[in-house]
Specification:
Strand content: 15-25%
Radius of gyration: 24 Å
Number of helices: 17
Number of strands: 21
Structural class: alpha+beta
Distance between the termini: 58 Å
Helix content: 25-40%
Largest sheet: 6 strands, mixed
């Protein structure tokens, strides 16, 4: 094994990276007076269904997991990979990656954190026994034998990840992937303690049983009330952490969350609802924070269920929505109308919107009526279905507006149904829906982060979309050696899905939050996450 690593034929590219911890820590400006009590309360929007990194699929859980756990790699404010649990890594031809852990890493209970924990966690993600909604992620990243392991055709030991020793992890990919480190920074690949998972089973995420590797430890979890984290003194960068205690409140009603901010109970909200946005800009101009995120709000169809197995119906419903009105009048918080299922610029890839995006709204409306009539729906036989959304943010406002447009333009009879977030996620996975609201945010800054989720059989393909031509285009893009080589294939994939319409993109997202003026260090990543370890409370 060592001889392979040192062979001159391997063209080894060693990245000896700085161990400076200031990239991921509270950077308090000189002269800043800190408050005696370093505690904050964060609005979380919803109750997380899990705090298990290998089972998480939503931001309400990821918000907390990034405080509890660390990855081998972290992304800085520019989205560039930097050392996390790994002090450095070696790259051979973008296909074999070797990670060297920081010395003396510990879990929050003082037990050693080793390369074996990393290997266990990555295999656990792919293991069909885990049932992870993110199992496909190791296949996105092209780990060797990933799909065969996910499908149960090979044992997890065949996955392309191994521990060379207690402090060295080697990953072998099935093809070169130049942006592989973007995958490594994702929460689903954060290591968990093999000892504690095996000892406690599914209950390992409960207070008193969970051990963590990040800046904080789980202190308390009262379902539907609060999740409390306290500072982890064994975190590798603990000396640069300032906040001692953080509480996450699962408040589904965004207006109620804002009101609790105004009363001083919450320091940072998860959102600002549209109906309060202008008022907050006027009353709290220095505390409104708008952060662009790589995310798309869309409605996804159950494409296996009639009439949504008819592409004409899906196209008609898309064309009948005036997305400019949604962005400018309904939400009016900086969002832009979305014509594609992904941001058109990601990394070094720049895509064109679908052809219909150039049409006027009048032309779109006329074509929508013709398509729906062609599909057999008339005033005497109207299209009827249920639109499902979760009770949070602006979801209800958008649903009411869109349903009104569908009724006015197409005569569609739309029943609106709302559910709590955890319930809705279960419904989506079970396929018991007609049309459902969802937002997909990028896991990394590359088009495959969006397009992979529509591949046939993908664990995140909740619309059950199937297209061999689309699958082939995404696969060919992944084989390209350069972004320029991938762009044509990504454009083909985007064009296919822009015509087939398994989902209706509505708006490109903008994260709007209230951040109390005495909280310093706040920034939000393009993936929509921010980290308590970067924050501090200033003296008033």
């Amino acid at each position: 094994m060592d001889s392979k690593l040192t062979s001159p034929r391997m063209a080894l590219a060693t990245l000896l990276l700085s161990l400076s911890p200031t990239l991921f820590a509270a950077e308090v400006p000189p002269g800043t007076r800190l408050a005696a009590q370093q505690e904050i309360v964060r609005g979380n929007g919803a109750e997380p269904s899990t705090l298990d990194p290998q089972k998480v699929e939503t931001n309400d859980a990821s918000n907390i997991i990034v405080d509890l756990f660390d990855g081998l790699v972290q992304l800085d404010r520019a989205g560039k990979p930097q050392p996390g649990l790994a002090a450095s890594w070696d790259n051979r031809d973008n296909r074999v990656w070797t990670f060297h852990l920081r010395p003396n890493l510990q879990w929050s209970d003082g037990t050693p954190l080793t390369a074996h924990d990393v290997v266990f966690s990555w295999r656990r993600l792919a293991d069909p026994k885990t049932g992870s909604p993110y199992a496909s992620f190791v296949n996105y990243a092209h780990l060797e034998h990933a799909q065969a392991v996910i499908d149960g055709q090979l044992p997890v030991e065949k996955l392309g990840v191994t521990a060379l020793d207690d402090s060295t992890v080697q990953v072998t990919l099935s093809q070169p992937v130049g942006y592989f480190l973007q995958f490594v920074a994702h929460t689903s690949l954060f290591p968990v303690s093999e000892k504690h998972v095996r000892q406690y089973g599914d209950s390992w995420t409960r207070p008193g049983k969970m051990v963590s590797s990040g800046a904080y430890s789980l202190d308390d979890w009262v379902v539907n009330e609060k999740i409390v984290l306290t500072r982890n003194p064994r975190y590798w960068n603990n000396d640069k952490t300032v906040i001692e205690r953080v509480s996450f409140l699962p408040i589904a009603d965004a207006a109620a969350e804002v009101n609790r901010f105004r009363s001083g109970e919450i320091g940072i909200t998860s959102v600002i609802p549209a109906e309060q946005y202008a008022q907050m800009q006027q009353q709290h101009p220095d505390e409104v924070v708008n952060s662009p995120v790589q995310a798309v709000f869309y409605y996804q169809f159950n494409t296996e269920k009639a009439p949504f197995n008819d592409v004409r119906v899906r196209q008609a419903l898309n064309l009948a929505i005036d997305k400019n009105i949604i962005a400018q009048k309904v939400t009016a918080k900086g969002q832009l109308p979305a014509d594609a299922v992904l941001p058109l610029t990601m990394g070094e890839i720049h895509l064109r919107p679908p052809a219909w995006a150039a049409e006027s709204q009048d032309a779109r409306t006329a074509r929508a009526k013709a398509l729906l009539a062609e599909a057999g729906f008339t005033a005497a036989h109207p299209l009827r279905f249920t639109l499902l959304y979760n009770i949070a943010g602006d979801n209800q406002r958008i649903a009411i507006a869109v349903a009104s447009m569908w009724k006015k333009t197409l005569g569609a009879q739309v029943k609106l149904q709302n559910q709590e977030w955890k319930t809705m996620v279960d419904v989506m996975h079970s396929g018991q829906f007609d049309v459902v609201r969802y937002t997909w945010g990028a896991d990394y800054d590359e088009p495959s982060s969006f397009l992979n989720t529509f591949r046939t059989g993908d664990s995140q393909n909740l619309s059950r979309y199937r297209s061999q031509a689309f699958d082939e285009a995404v696969a060919e893009a992944g084989k390209a050696a350069t972004p320029a080589g991938a762009q044509a294939w990504y454009q083909k994939a985007s064009d296919i899905i822009g015509n087939d319409m398994p989902v209706i993109p509505i708006v490109y997202s903008m994260r709007n939050q209230l951040v109390r003026s005495d909280i310093g260090g706040f920034w939000s990543s393009p993936m929509g996450l921010y980290f308590t370890r970067d924050l501090y409370v200033k003296a008033r």
